[in-house]
């Protein structure tokens, strides 16, 4: 692209006057997303009314602001070198050399460039003048930019299973929980868990009305469970802490899909071990179709224009170790890492045709809340929440998603051919709301960071646009509710077994002070890196209604068929995503305010901000079992493991 010089330049020094008489176009011709060892095609166009000789400098400015000069034997050469000291691209050029529409290909970018946005600048000086004397880089004649990613990962698409129909007409899925190894970082191996593979599991594609049956074989060296997050199924099929799959054994749950089209997921739910087992890689998606979703003109080619995305952050040491042990003070808020994985690869690239695509995004992280958006603020449309489609697409440029939550979005790439998009988390905008205490924020909470890039190619053929409407959502009248249950989310108080520390929030001035107190959590973690979050349970660090999880205690008893309002209040310093098994609910209000349009759909997990009270309404239908409880809990998995969980039964 061309930068027009301004009249002001004419009043500057000689060499600048030379620049004012020149016009340069500098355009990157191919994709503006570059990977290791890729070529760079530039179009250079030069015009001048100046008869004097000039020197042309072309430099690449890297994300850390250092300049890399491109040098060529002559103006028409495609053989170039890169130099960190100022070198002219071509010297003693003049206007009558007739350089126009010149395409030069830099065959290979230098290796080991830092990832990020690169800027290309062209500057003209009087022949022989010192390019740095005049500060010309402040007013380059031409500029273009490209995004460089080190990592040549393309987004992996999990295998999709549709089941094998047995004699009873059930769709049967065989899932094996197994140990694995994965190379997240180059030249390293990380010990992982996976389902039918090394890391994560297949996507289960089913339809409303399907009867499903599973053979879930546990080949790990420890017990586990598999919970169907978001599924409306009987409690004994739910895969919670009471449906343990011992090592070497096979669990055979079966149930019917009795709910609307949605993106659900499955993951372990073993008491005290959920965080660790999910962190190692046990998770997968479930996609439900129904007659409504089938009738809509939505992208539905799995992996082509309908893209599953399991977003997770991981802390991976340089040697590949991916420990889920607590190391830092901020870990008390849940384990967060600096590497962003989508479907198991670090900051990958999705290659897409220029058409409308759907992203089914699961926040499968243990603890990190994302504030998704695109680097160029490209608009997108949220079309579904946890439990299904919204009434109409909601245009957004930001969308926050807490652990356990899902969102489906449409992205219209029809006019983006040849462009790249960068999906990021604008966490600095959100973390003051989710982590009131600044000491609880980690480095990424205070930044914008990359999740995935999308490289847009030629036009696609799905011929889709953004639909005007999606589905109808039957509201549940508030007056139908026969029970209003309060749930208060609390953190910070140690119980008596920890000695006489009492209520840390009151006696020590809040969580932040714990870092300074050797008696507090900070000191404990610092002294012993092998602490696990299960140990926090004994301390009562994270509670609901002043209780920690007790598998022998049923906290709430609900009558089958009842409509209930659950009022969830957060008295803690950080936001907690509250998840209810068995049902999907509608948000009535947040601190008395109606939910935003993108939240006005079926949910099974709701982020409750500090000092906020969220009311949700739901009906408990179909499944009663006085003996087997369902769970409700915080979906920050470390908090769940620390006891921020309760049990309810539905009775006939
Ligand atoms: Cu929590």
From the spread of the alpha carbons, the general shape counts as elongated
CATH architecture assignment name of the largest domain: Sandwich
Helix content: under 10%
Q: At the third CATH level, what is the topology name of the largest domain?
A: Immunoglobulin-like
User: What is the typical, i.e. mean, pLDDT?
Assistant: 85
Tell me what the structure shows.
With 652 residues, this protein is mainly β. The chain folds into three domains: 143 residues, Sandwich (Immunoglobulin-like); 300 residues, Sandwich (Immunoglobulin-like), CATH 2.60.40.420; 174 residues, Immunoglobulin-like (Sandwich), CATH 2.60.40.420. It is 8% helix and 39% strand. The protein is built from eight helices and 43 strands. The strands form eight sheets. Strands 2, 4, 5, 6, 7, 9 and 10 form a seven-stranded mixed sheet that branches. Strands 24-23-22-26-31-28-29 form a seven-stranded mixed sheet, with no helix packed on it. 46% of the residues are buried. The N terminus is likely disordered.
SSE arrangement:
Layout: H1 14-20, E1 22-28, E2 33-35, E3 40-48, E4 54-61, E5 67-71, E6 81-83, E7 90-93, E8 102-106, E9 116-126, E10 142-149, E11 160-161, E12 164-165, E13 171-182, E14 190-195, E15 203-207, E16 211-218, E17 227-229, E18 250-251, E19 254-256, E20 262-267, H2 274-280, E21 284-289, H3 291-295, E22 306-314, E23 339-342, E24 345-346, E25 349-354, E26 356-363, E27 370-374, E28 380-385, E29 388-396, E30 399-401, E31 406-412, E32 420-426, H4 427-434, E33 448-459, E34 481-491, H5 504-507, H6 521-527, H7 533-539, E35 542-544, E36 556-559, E37 563-570, E38 576-580, E39 586-590, E40 605-608, E41 613-619, E42 630-634, H8 637-641, E43 645-651
Parallel strand pairs: 2-10, 11-15, 13-16, 15-21, 22-26, 25-33, 34-37, 36-43
Antiparallel strand pairs: 1-3, 3-8, 4-5, 4-7, 4-9, 5-6, 9-10, 12-13, 13-14, 16-18, 16-19, 17-20, 20-21, 22-23, 23-24, 26-31, 27-30, 27-32, 28-29, 28-31, 32-33, 34-35, 37-41, 38-40, 38-42, 39-41, 42-43
Copper (II) ion binds next to loops.
């Amino acid at each position: 692209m061309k930068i027009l010089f301004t009249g002001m330049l004419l009043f500057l020094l000689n060499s600048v006057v030379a620049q004012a008489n020149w016009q340069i176009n500098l355009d990157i011709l191919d994709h503006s997303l570059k990977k290791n060892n890729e070529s760079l095609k530039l179009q250079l166009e030069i015009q001048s009314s100046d008869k004097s000789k000039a020197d042309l400098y072309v430099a690449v400015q890297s994300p850390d602001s250092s300049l890399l000069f491109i040098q060529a034997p002559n103006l028409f050469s495609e053989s170039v070198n890169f130099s960190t000291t100022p070198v002219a691209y071509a010297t003693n050029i003049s206007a009558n050399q007739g350089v126009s529409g010149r395409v030069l290909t830099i065959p290979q970018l230098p290796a080991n460039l830092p990832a990020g946005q690169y800027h290309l600048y062209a500057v003209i000086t009087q022949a022989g003048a010192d390019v740095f004397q005049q500060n010309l880089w402040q007013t380059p004649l031409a500029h273009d930019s490209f995004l460089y990613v080190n990592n040549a990962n393309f987004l992996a698409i999990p295998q999709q299973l549709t089941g094998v129909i047995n004699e009873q007409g059930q769709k049967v899925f065989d899932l094996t929980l197994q140990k694995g190894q994965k190379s997240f970082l180059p030249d390293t191996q990380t010990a992982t868990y996976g389902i039918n593979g090394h890391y994560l599991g297949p996507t289960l594609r089913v339809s409303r009305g399907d009867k499903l049956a599973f053979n879930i074989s546990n080949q790990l060296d420890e017990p586990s469970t598999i919970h169907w997050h978001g599924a409306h199924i009987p409690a004994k099929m739910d895969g919670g802490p009471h449906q343990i799959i011992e090592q070497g054994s096979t669990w055979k749950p079966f149930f019917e899909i009795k709910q609307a089209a949605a993106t659900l997921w499955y993951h372990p739910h073993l008491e005290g071990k959920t965080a660790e087992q999910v962190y190692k890689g046990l998770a997968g998606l479930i996609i439900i179709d129904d007659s409504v979703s089938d009738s809509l003109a939505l992208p539905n080619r799995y992996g082509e224009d309908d893209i599953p995305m399991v977003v997770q952050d991981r802390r991976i040491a340089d040697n590949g170790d991916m420990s889920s042990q607590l190391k830092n003070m901020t870990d008390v808020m849940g384990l967060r890492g600096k590497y962003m994985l989508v479907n198991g690869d670090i900051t990958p690239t999705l290659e897409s045709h220029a058409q409308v695509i759907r992203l089914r995004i699961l926040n499968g992280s243990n603890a990190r809340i994302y504030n998704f958006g695109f680097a160029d603020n490209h608009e997108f449309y949220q079309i579904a929440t946890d439990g299904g489609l919204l009434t109409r697409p909601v245009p957004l440029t930001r969308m926050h998603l807490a652990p356990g939550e899902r969102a489906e979005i449409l992205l219209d790439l029809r006019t983006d051919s040849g462009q790249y998009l960068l999906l990021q988390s604008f966490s600095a905008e959100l973390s003051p709301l989710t982590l009131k205490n600044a000491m609880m924020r980690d480095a990424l909470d205070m930044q914008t960071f990359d999740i995935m890039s999308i490289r847009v190619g030629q036009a696609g053929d799905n011929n889709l646009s953004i639909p005007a409407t999606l589905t109808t959502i039957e509201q549940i009248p508030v007056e139908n509710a026969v029970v209003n249950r309060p749930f208060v989310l609390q953190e910070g108080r140690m119980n008596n077994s920890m000695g006489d520390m009492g209520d840390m929030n009151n006696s020590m001035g809040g969580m932040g002070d714990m870092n300074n107190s050797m008696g507090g959590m900070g000191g404990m973690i610092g002294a012993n890196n092998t602490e696990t979050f299960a140990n926090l349970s004994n301390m009562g660090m994270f509670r609901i209604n002043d209780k920690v999880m007790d598998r022998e205690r049923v906290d709430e008893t609900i009558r089958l068929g009842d409509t209930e309002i659950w009022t969830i209040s957060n008295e803690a310093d950080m936001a907690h995503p509250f998840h209810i098994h068995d049902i999907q609910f509608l948000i009535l209000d947040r601190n008395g305010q109606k939910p935003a349009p993108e939240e006005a759909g079926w949910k099974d997990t709701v982020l409750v901000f500090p000092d906020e009270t969220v009311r949700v309404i739901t009906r408990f239908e179909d499944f009663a079992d006085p003996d087997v409880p369902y769970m409700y809990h915080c979906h920050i998995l470390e908090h769940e493991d620390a006891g921020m969980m309760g049990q309810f039964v539905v009775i006939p």
